[in-house]
Structures are given as C-alpha cells and as structure tokens.
Design brief:
Blueprint: E1 18-19, E2 23-25, E3 41-43, E4 47-49, E5 52-57, E6 60-65, E7 69-71, E8 77-80, E9 86-87, E10 91-94, E11 96-99, E12 108-116, E13 123-124, E14 134-137, E15 143-153, E16 170-174, E17 180-184, E18 188-189, E19 194-201, E20 210-219, E21 225-231, E22 241-244, E23 251-261, E24 275-279, E25 292-293, E26 299-300, H1 323-339, H2 354-369
Parallel strand pairs: 1-7, 9-16, 18-24
Antiparallel strand pairs: 2-3, 4-7, 5-6, 8-11, 10-14, 12-13, 12-15, 15-16, 17-19, 19-22, 20-21, 20-23, 23-24, 25-26
C-alpha cells in the first residue's frame, strides 16, 4: 500500500518517483465512506505507469487517477572500453560503454574506480560521468593504473563496488620520464667498422620500456649526423652495439645515442659526446736501420752484394761502401776493358769525392752498355 484515500479523496505525493522493486498499489481508508475498496494494482515490469482506481462511495461512483511513477529494477552495467597501452602525459581520458545501451528511463551514470601498481583497495575517482569519458589525472605519478567502471541509475540501482579481488577491466602505464642511454667506443681504430657499444634504461619501476636507440656521429668536430643505425631491442646486453662504418674517412669521430621509450618519451641529446674514436688507416713507414759491416769490407743489406757492389737501386754514400774497395773494383774493370782494346779515357778519381765516383760509375755503365 502506497497511499491512503480519505473523505477528501486526495493522493499523497510520495508515490511520485522511481521504484527499484515490484510495486503493489492499494487504497485504504474510512470504510464508512468507501464500503468496498478496489483490489490492489500489482506492477512487476519496468516502465512508466499511470494507475487509476474506480470504486463506489456512499456519495456515488469515483474514478481516481494517480500521478505517474516509474519502476526500474534493472541494474545498469558499465565497462571501461579502451585505453592506450602507454601514456606519456599524467592526464588522459577514460572512456566506457554502458550495458544495456538503453536504460529503462531513470538515466545512467558511471563511477570510476582505480588502483596504482596493483595496490589495494580500489579508490573511487571523485567525479562521475553521465555519458562523456572521464578525465583522469594520475594521482600517484608514473606507474601502472588499473580501472573498473561502476554504473548506477537515478532509481537507485547500482553495480557492485569492486573488492580487492576484483580483476581490472583495463590497465595502462603512465610514463612521463624520458629514457637514458650512453655509448662507448675505442679511443683509436684503424679498421672499419668501429664497434660502438651502447647501454640504455627506461628508469625504475613500472616504466613503459625502451622502444629503440639511434646512433648519431660527427666527423672532425662538424655537425651531428644521424648514422641511420637503430637498435630496436629493449634489452641492454651483449647484442647492444652498432658497427659504424666511418664513411668520411680518417679523422676523429664523436658519438652519442638517443633512446625513445614505448610511451613516446625521447631522450634529450647530451651536451658532450658519449664517446670519441680517432680513426687512422695510414700505414706507418718504419725507419731504415743503419747497415752493419760484413767480413768482406763492404756492406750487407737484404739481397747481398756481388763483390763489394751494392744491388741495383741502392744509393751510394759515405756509409754504404768503402772507397778503397770501390777504387779496386774500378781498376779491375779498367784492366778488363783495356784488354779488349777499349779506351776509358783519362779520369782522376779522388777517394773521398763520392759525387765524382758516382759520376764515373755512371759513365762506366754507359761505356759498358755500348760494348
């Protein structure tokens, strides 16, 4: 019974509104006025109702219409619909869907419950929504956030509040911190490629993880250039390196690395290079050691001598051949040529004049070549 009918046949306004259970509407009152009250009206379905009664009183017949009221026994349902896997901003929107999509009339709202890094209990976000996605500002900084949407309607139906054991409907990672990296290369190198070893990290705790690392270089203090080399692993281990080909030739190569994480945070380039390598492929020329004297009085040196004459192409000098021995050899040649009827001409050779000796030998070579 939700109302009382008296002689004035008035209806209390308390029957206006929403009901979340079956409704039974009956009339009661002074039986001296209404000898036979009508049977109650039983309402078991959701919807809007305008019940009325028809009955007789001592004063005649009466039709009584009641104000409209509503029954909504259906508990609405909501769920977080989608989230990015990572956010690099502490503020983002949390969208949701409602089930059923059409409420029975009372209107549906959504409360959002969250927890940080799987810590319990869930906490209710202070604002509710009646359709639009909820704006969430991560209150506990970076880390993993888990969400559950809880629907309610204006009739008073309400989904169950999540417990510590409730599984989240959606999770995401808030990561607003840029990753870090460093590079190491040999101080000197003479062969290509130059191996540049790298190390990187995306910080502590529930970070999004490293997505990739790029290598930049400059040659002889020039402008920085993207090497085109990328390391896409998120594991900093023995495979974390670049084999850099020094395309600009010999010189000094400076290196640094830039790392980006899965949330989209990009490392700021360092002021100073991470590593520097001097690349030099020039083959050094070894100095010629001074010759050692051999038992024959001449000088030995790779290839040997015929008598005391040095091999072809060896330069005569004060330290490479004994002047007296040279004169003996020249006299020997002179006698040999004289026996064949050849005239060498008159030439005075001074033992200490190496230039004159060399000129004489050249002249002698020409004479021998023509005979």
């Amino acid at each position: 019974m939700i109302g009382t009918i008296g002689n004035d046949q008035s209806v209390p306004q308390s029957i206006l509104g929403w009901f979340t259970t079956d409704a039974s509407i009956s009339l009661s009152g002074d039986t001296s006025v209404i000898p036979n009250f009508p049977s109650p009206i039983e309402l078991t379905e959701d919807g809007q109702f305008n019940p009325s009664f028809s009955f007789d009183t001592n004063d005649g017949h009466c039709n009584l219409g009641l104000p409209a009221f509503f029954i909504d026994k259906t508990v609405p349902e909501a769920a977080v619909s989608s989230l990015s896997q990572y956010y690099n901003n502490s503020t983002f929107l949390v969208p949701f869907t409602l089930l059923p999509l059409v409420d029975n009339g009372s209107g549906v709202g959504v409360d959002l419950y969250y927890r940080h890094n799987s810590a319990v209990p869930y906490t209710k976000w202070p604002t509710s929504s009646f359709g639009d996605p909820l704006e969430f500002v991560s209150p506990d900084g970076d880390g993993s956030y888990q969400f559950i949407a809880v629907a309610f309607d204006e009739a008073g139906n309400h989904e169950n509040i999540p417990t510590d054991a409730s599984a989240p409907e959606f999770s995401t990672v808030v990561d607003t911190t840029a990753p870090m990296s460093s590079a190491f290369s040999p101080t000197n190198a003479s062969v290509s490629p130059i191996r540049v070893v790298i190390d990187f990290t995306d910080g502590l705790g529930e970070a999004s993880g490293v997505a990739g690392t790029q290598l930049f270089y400059r040659h002889n203090g020039g402008g920085w250039v993207d090497s085109g080399l990328s390391h896409l692993s998120d594991v900093s281990d023995d495979t974390a390196y670049f084999d850099f080909v020094p395309v600009d030739g010999d010189g000094t190569y400076d290196f640094y690395t830039i790392t980006i994480d899965e949330a989209g945070n990009v490392e700021v380039p360092p002021i100073d290079p991470d590593a520097t390598t001097l690349y030099d492929t020039t083959v050094p020329v070894a100095p010629v050691p001074p010759p050692a004297n051999n038992p024959g009085g001449g000088t030995s040196g790779g290839g040997g001598f015929i008598g005391n004459i040095p091999p072809t192409g060896q330069v005569l000098g004060a330290s490479t051949i004994s002047n007296p021995e040279l004169l003996k050899f020249i006299n020997l040649l002179t006698r040999m040529l004289a026996n064949k009827g050849k005239v060498l001409g008159v030439m005075t050779v001074k033992p200490n004049n190496h230039v004159q000796i060399l000129n004489f030998l050249n002249s002698l070579k020409l004479r021998l070549a023509t005979n």
